[in-house]
Amino acid sequence: MYTPEFDYVRANSVQEAVRLLGESQGAKLLAGGHSLIPIMKLRQGNPGKLIDIGRIAGLKGVTRSNGTSRIGALTTHAMVAASADLPGALADAARNIADLQVRNRGTVGGNVAHADPASDLPTVFTALGATFHVTGPNGERSISASDFFTGMFTTGLADNEVLTAVEVPVHASGTGSAYAKMINPASGYAMVGAAAVVTVADGKCTQASVAVGGLTPSATRAPSVEAALAGKALDEANIAMAAGEVENDLGGDLLGDMHAGADYRKAMAPVFVKRALLAAAARASL
Amino acid sequence: MTSRIFGSGIKRREDPRLITGQAKYTDDLTLPGMAYMYVVRSPYAHARIRGINTEKAAGMPGVFGVFTGKDIAEAGFGNIPCAWIVPDSECKAPPHPALATEKVRYVGDGVAVVVAVDPYQARDAADAVEVDYEPLPAVVDAYQATQEGAPILYDSVPKNIDFVWRVSGGDVEKAFEEAEVTVKDKIINQRLIPNAMEPRAAVAQYNAGMGELTLWSTTQNPHIARFLLSLVTNIPEHKIRVVAPEVGGGFGSKIPLYADEIVAIFCSKKLGRPVKWTETRSENYLATIHGRDHIQEVELCGTRDGKITGIRGKVWANLGAYLSTASTGVPTILHGLMLSGAYDIPNIREEVIGVVTNTTPVDAYRGAGRPEATFLVERLVDLYAMEINMDPVEVRRKNFIPPFEDGHTVATGIIYDSGNYEPALDRALEMVGYEQLRADQANGPQNGKYLGVGLCTYVEICGLGPSQVAGAVGFGGGLWESAIVRFHPSGKVNVMVGVSPHGQGEETTFAQIVSDELGVDVDDVEVLHGDTDQTPMGWGTYGSRTTAVGSGAMMGAINKIKEKSKLIAAHLLEADAADIEYADGKFFVKGSPDKAKTIQDIALAANVAWDMPEGVEPGLEASSFFDPPNFVYPFGTHIAVVEVDAETGEVTLKDYVAVDDCGRVINPMIVEGQIHGGLVQGIGQALWEEAVYDENGQLLSGTMMDYVLPKARFFPQFRTDKTETPTTVNPLGVKGIGETGTIASTVAVYNAVMDALQPLGVTKIDMPLKSERVWQAIQASKNGG
User: Fold this and answer.
1) How confident is the model over B636-660, as pLDDT tens digits?
2) Please, which pLDDT band fits residue B2 given cuts at 50, 70 and 90?
3) Burial of B20 (0-12, 13-18, 19+ CB in 10 A)
4) pLDDT band at B157 (very low <50, low <70, confident <90, very high)
5) pLDDT tens, residue by residue, B173-195
6) A262 to chain B: nearest residue by CA?
């Protein structure tokens, strides 16, 4: 597998990366390279220039403060899986991304910026209501999950912006989250992924946030499921009933392939929403 | 003195270099002035070539030359031969040029080649080769290809039917007419991609001054490659050296002679430079052979009380676009002759229709014909058991061929060497806890999960084989082996063999045998293979023949060494040769073991030759040839335990027990490794693997992102055991074990899943049993299916 010819430049700071992006039409940022390099090797794309941000200091690692955790864009999936400061749903997802080698090199920032519809993290970040911190020529700004994941392989990031961190809430007592996926046995990506965050007080669900991915063009919130859970005891029957509501939230544009057609994925969505909710509810009650 | 290590699981001597990255593969080779080639391949499955313009590509940076099939033909190169033409089948061998000139017939068919300074520039220039195609309708399915109106690949192959081969024994019509019970099925053994860890590669170096060619190649059989290359290139065989350096797995996919090697040789000759070609994984999926792709319509008949009386079937075997080297023998000889399985079935008939289609050529892939035969028999046996409401274990017991030690002829006409099938079945049942599993199953599904148990009691044919039979069944070569055992003055030993192991471990097992037989430390033996200039003639490594046949040749050479050593020992001990005894590497006069000469003493004496007995030549070296009197027929019982999640259709393999009988075992650890690897590939076929073409002949499963290569986490720890029923067809009593895993496991797992789904009324799902298909079958059954 041989890439076409391309230029390579290393950025030593976020500001330098932003400047280089502005100077080079079509250039792409290189972090872990686990989506970008295969695309180039398959000659499905050639950005012409790669700006390597992989060694910029301060973009790697998880820091916790004031009820949130900040995940640097260069944090690897393995680091997320091993972090005690992150919500359960995130650890569930990170632990099962691809294989060990990929988890050791692939980055959270690269993953979400690529916005593959079959990727796990966008679904989890959507359910968690994560905030995406970016830096551009005019300084820093933050983007909500719903504004970040705008479609298949598209995000709210501008061409000249660099994603620096993703911020997620730290679960308070009574809140739990989980991620369940039907895995594509070839690629390891999600054919159906479901992330759930629930808060329980006095045996009743006071707040629920649910998202699905894999079968929709981008990570999709499931408000019908969330509404069906409000004020309910999180027992198996209520959860199963609420999970069934996910059909109303999927939209008309469902993905399918030779591994799992759209109809099958649609039928599996309630199953995996249910599984994610059951696991999240169990964690909330711990 | 060394103790006996036959039967000991010593560690593989190959492994340290493999796992520390020190092994040298073809792609590791760099020669001065070497150029790199890239093959331009057809994006169409079927198209006429109107013209090829190479001008622009030839002017690209770093390009030494761009060539087409016309250039290769003008250089006097011939077409690529098929080396196995099954007789009495009107088998046709349509021309297969190294680069297509008039028509392309599958996506990946080569049309031009670019040679450049480095692989990147070759790849870039390939995009500049302009090929004017006139696309034609394509056909990918073997059955559909034979139907009226299907696109035709070759004018010389009407209806795309390349051959029709038949086997029959007994009176099948009568058996079915008189049968109390008949069961039938349509079985599809889907197309698989072999996925050797190392893709194919070649380095061709033509030396014009000497008129000599050296080809380093990822081949399982360098001597066959040399023979065929001489036919295609017109370079005489004695001026060709083929080297198989470290070869990273083959599974059959490195048996054939491919177009790419021919093209590399042409380019080296034309440009006067060594030329390297290494395929990418994407190319590997298109341009290296695929396996299976068999459609079977089959029936079994028997009595109400469980006696099988007949099997008949019709098979459409997809050969792909061209006849690959061993392609026609796989779905015929290696499949049709094995339809009696482990059973006494008096009446058998099958018709195999070999079909050309617009797909990658199909050839031998681990198991090669026998998994398809075993699946057919073992699935029908289960359907029959279900029909007569008998435990599948009992049906098998009732029909087993009784134990035999020296030959049993089955209805297809072949003679099994030795067999004793019930002990392996009993052991497997005991290991898996069969009674308990059936009791658990009777309790119904737990948490929506259905338990299933599936059996396969197989027998297979391998250790290919007697050369006379090879000739009779249309194989274009012999199937004997040869070996040279050479003692150096220091007592160290080289063994040169014609077989060409590439992961099977014979560097270890052959050294174990030499160590035992001749009394040298195993570390003092080096087994050399895979170089036609260094090793004696042999037919290579495939068909689980390397140990079964190769060790026979080695034993012949070892015995000659012993005989000569006795003469030398007698001379040194001033005794009569008839009085010399040999034990544990020592030669001594009967009754005086303390005054012995070791094999090392004799090696030195023979090599310096200061004082040889009269009439005895210097040196201690012997060569031997071995042609076995029969194939070998390993057998055993595999049992799979699965759980099916009715909510999602997901199948989980919970337990897997394999009890195999490959005769005497030289190294149990290596045998176990062979079984494990085969199981993964065989279970892969049952549950995940599938090469998928769309109707236009585009390979949809063209990368590992889409082709499901099984991962370690998909499997439980396999549990294995053995019974030992030696064969009489070779000196050591050994049978092959390289393929039993793929032969037995596919249907064992399939039967287990169907067993699990029986309460839900599902009896048939096409492989692979991916979640979606299982779920759909469950839904269809629920909806009154």
Assistant:
1) 999 999 999 999 999 999 999 999 9
2) very low
3) exposed
4) very high
5) 999 999 999 999 999 999 999 99
6) B772
Say if A84 is an interface residue toward chain B (CB within 8 Å).
Answer: no
**d(C-alpha A31, C-alpha A103), whole Å:** 13
Was domain B291-464+630-782 assigned CATH 3.30.200.20?
no
Q: What is the pLDDT of residue A286?
A: 75
B124, closest residue in chain A (CA to CA): A4
- A63: closest CA of chain B, how far (Å): 32
CATH superfamily ID and name for A175-284: CO dehydrogenase flavoprotein, C-terminal domain (3.30.390.50)
Buried b vs exposed e over A178-215: b needs ≥16 C-beta within 10 Å? bbbbbbbbbbbbbbbbbbbbbbbeeeebeebbbbbbbb
pLDDT at B785 over 60: no
Of B440, B438, B333, B455, residue with least CA distance to B392: B455
Q: Which residues of B touch A186 (CB under 8 A)?
A: 688, 701, 704-709
Mutate to test the interface with A, among B27, B772, B775 (most CBs of A within 10 A): B772
Predicted pLDDT of residue A122: 98
A44 in contact with B, Cβ within 8 Å = no
Q: Nearest by CB to A186, which of B281, B647, B708?
A: B708
Which residues in B have their CB inside 8 Å of a CB on A? 119-120, 123-124, 280-282, 647-648, 650, 688, 692, 700-701, 703-709, 711, 714, 770-772, 775-776
Q: What distance in Å separates the CA atoms of residue B746 and residue B719, rounded to the nearest whole number? A: 16
Reply yes or no: is the peptide bond before residue B768 cis, omega within 30 of 0: yes
- Give the Cα separation of B348 and B414 in Å (integer): 12
Residue B278 corresponds to which tokens in the numbers above?
């290494």
Render pLDDT for B14-63 as a digit per residue (tens, 0 to 9).
Answer: 999 999 999 999 999 999 999 999 999 999 999 999 999 999 999 999 99
Residue B193 to chain A, least CA–CA distance (Å): 13
- A169-to-A66, A86, A103, A128 alpha-carbon distances in Å: 9, 8, 23, 7
Q: Is the ipTM of this complex over 0.85?
A: yes
Residue B4 pLDDT class (50, 70, 90 cuts): confident
Fold for A62-169, please state it: 3.30.465
For chain B, the structural domain boundaries read: 31-136+197-249+254-287, 291-464+630-782, 480-626
Q: Distance between CA B122 and CA A74 in Å, rounded?
A: 35
Cα–Cα distances in angstroms (integers) from residue A153 to residues A45, A105, A129, B679, in the given order: 13, 20, 19, 38
Cross-chain residue pair A42–B282, CB shorter than 8 Å:
yes
Instruction: Parse chain A into domains and list their residue ranges.
Output: 7-52, 62-169, 175-284
- A275 contacts on B by Cβ (under 8 Å): none
What is the fold, at CATH topology level, of the domain defined by B480-626?
Aldehyde Oxidoreductase; domain 4 (3.30.365)
Contact A258 B704 (CB under 8 A): no
pTM across the whole model: 0.97
* pLDDT tens digits for range B97-132: 999 999 999 999 999 999 999 999 999 999 999 999
Residue B255 Cα distances to A241, B225, B289, angstroms: 57, 8, 10
Set of chain A residues whose Cβ sits within 8 Å of the Cβ of B708: 185-186, 259
Report how far residue B525's alpha carbon sits from residue B519's, in angstroms, rounded to the nearest whole number: 11
Please answer yes or no on whether B124 and A5 come within 8 Å at the CB atom.
Answer: yes
Residues of B in contact with A261 (CB under 8 A): 772
Cβ pairs A/B, distance under 8 A:
54
Q: Do domains B291-464+630-782 and B480-626 have the same CATH topology?
A: yes
pLDDT of B1 over the 50 cut: no
Determine the residue among B771, B773, B775, B783 to mutate to test chain A binding: the one whose Cβ has the most chain A Cβ atoms within 10 Å.
B771
Residues of B in contact with A99 (CB under 8 A): 711
CATH 3.20.20.70 fits A7-52, yes or no: no
Model confidence band, residue B3 (pLDDT cutoffs 50, 70, 90): low
From B691, which residue of chain A is nearest by alpha-carbon distance?
A258
Q: A35-39, A219-223, B398-402, B780-784: which has the minimum mean pLDDT? A: B780-784
Topology, domain B31-136+197-249+254-287: Aldehyde Oxidoreductase; domain 3 (3.90.1170)
